[in-house]
């Protein structure tokens, strides 16, 4: 079955940062998920569609494989470009293909939870992969370019001596887009923070009247999937409780 290896194995290959591997992450196209799970079940694994919009799992005793076909926020759907730009590698003596660095940056950039933040991973990837396909990386973020722009600015702060790794043309293009957008506020009151954290911006959509950014036209999530993803938030992490009497602090400032 066509698949790519990601997670700690791919990250270590690109950055040299070694981390203990608790599992194996493989990436597949959404249309191949059922067949991949069937192959794993045939060799004795217990399988489940943990979160149908992006993640399934296969268990073998205490070990498990994450079968990933999108990002948790519904933006980073695996497609054929992941495969056409994959990196050849050998893991545990087996020839494999790794997810591209560009797609790894794209998927990690939106993980800004209280219990897990991949910002440092993104910066390490930017530092370690100077031959990035910037046209494709910018295209991947598309309307969400501000997220990438923030990381590029933060990269120059984190690595002052490495600032030239970021192409000037990319920064200049983002600066022009940013300036133009600032003069044209969006008429729709939505909160795209839910694309960055499934927990920390629940108060915005549950109490303050903002539309959930995960219901945008380029996000592959249904309201039912959002509910399931929200219900799985670890206890004590979600921010959707009392707002101390304020309907919207933004309007009170």
Lay out the secondary structure.
Elements: E1 4-5, H1 7-15, E2 24-27, H2 33-42, E3 46-51, E4 55-60, E5 63-68, H3 80-84, E6 87-91, E7 94-98, H4 101-108, H5 119-128, H6 134-141, H7 145-158, H8 168-182, E8 190-191, H9 202-206, E9 211-212, H10 223-231, H11 249-252
Parallel strand pairs: 2-5, 8-9
Antiparallel strand pairs: 1-2, 3-4, 4-5, 6-7
Helix pairs in contact: 4-5, 4-6, 5-7
Please give the CATH architecture of the largest domain: 2-Layer Sandwich
Count of discrete domains: 3
Query: What fraction of the residues are assigned to beta strands by DSSP?
Result: 15-25%
> What is the residue-mean pLDDT, rounded to a whole number?
92
The CATH top-level class label of the largest domain: Alpha Beta
* Radius of gyration over all CA atoms, rounded: 19 Å
Distance between the termini: 55 Å
By DSSP (H or I, 4+ residues per run), the number of helices equals 11
Major sheet description: 5 strands, mixed
String of helices and strands: EHEHEEEHEEHHHHHEHEHH
The helix content is: 25-40%
Strand order of the largest sheet: 1-2-5-4-3
> Using DSSP, what is the number of strands?
9
| CATH topology label of the largest domain | Beta Polymerase, domain 2
Shape: globular
Regions with little confidence, pLDDT below 50 for 5+ residues? none
